[in-house]
Amino acid sequence: MVESVALSSTQKLSILERTRIAELRDQASRKLATGRRVNDVSDDPQDYLRAQALANRVSGLLGAKSGIGQGIESLLTAQTGLEALQKLSEQLKGIAISAQSASGTQLSGLVDQFDTVRQQLDNLAGDATYQGVNLLSNPAGTLRIGISDKAGETFTVNGQASDVTALSIGAAASDYNNFSTTANIESAIAALDDAISTIQSNEASIVNNAAILQVREDFTQDLADVLQSGREKLLTADLNAEGAKLMSAEVRDNLSVQGQKIAARSQSLIVDLLATG
Q: Which of 102, 132, 208, 227 is least enclosed, having the fewest CB within 10 Å?
């Protein structure tokens, strides 16, 4: 049978002190290893929950930023399409101007060229799609972008149809009577001037909306950075302070060990004195 060992009150207090010192040393070591003052809810419930709330908001903002970025790409797709549409419209105008001094076979060739380019313009407007949204097709699509981590806060861009029908660009063979008269040609040129003006106006609107979204994207990133910085301040440990705590705990532990040894020697001397007395 194993006999129980009786501990003096001093030894019990010393063991309790060493246990508490060990806990403090472990806490300081963990904070130094992770660089965080708050690693879980038990370290500081209030700051842990506040930091978690900030982390959730940062995540929501970064999700919104990603959506805004995709919205900008959709607008840039439309801008690229409008730039190409303007070039084709100017090409059509050049063909119509050439028709003013053409006749016979040459005029017939220009009519064919005009209608071929016109068809390509129509096809291009239908191809300016990004992730299923086409702001130039007829009917034009609508772009809705979530711009915040708050539900329901959106930015809407209504597309502007930019095909040959919406731009009122007729066919040379049918609408402009094969460019058979000066009036027909002048009608085509006037329609193309209006189309080019409309395209430029639509592009200016697209660029303006893209600029608004760019500001919003930058703001969202900046706000997320500020919130993340605040979260880090709630969690980050003061490494100098934690290092000092660890050193203090080690010194206290060493002193406690020495105290136990001294107490044990004192008890041994008393026992020896009593035994020899």
A: 132
User: What CA–CA distances, in Å, run from 147 to 59, 180, 213?
Assistant: 13, 54, 8
118 and 156 share one domain:
yes
Q: Is 15 within a domain?
A: yes
pLDDT of residue 232: 83
Give dist(CA 87, CA 94) in Å, integer.
10
Residues 83 and 172 in one domain: yes
The answer to pTM > 0.85 is no
Q: What is the distance between the alpha carbons of residues 74 and 72, in angstroms, rounded to a whole number?
A: 5
What is the pLDDT confidence band of residue 235, given thresholds at 50, 70 and 90? confident
More confident residue, 47 or 127: 127
Q: What pLDDT does 37 receive?
A: 66
Max Cα–Cα distance, the chain, nearest Å:
144
Secondary structure element (H or E) that encloses residue 157, with its range: strand 154-158
Give the angle 207-208-210 at the CA atoms, nearest 5°.
Answer: 65
Enumerate the H helices of 128-238 as residue ranges: 182-235
**Residue 47 in domain:** no
Same domain, 121 and 213: yes
Could you count the other beta carbons within 10 Å of the beta carbon of residue 125? 26
What does DSSP assign to residue 36? B
The domain spanning residue 62 has which CATH number?
Answer: 1.20.1330.10
Share of the chain above pLDDT 90, in %: 64
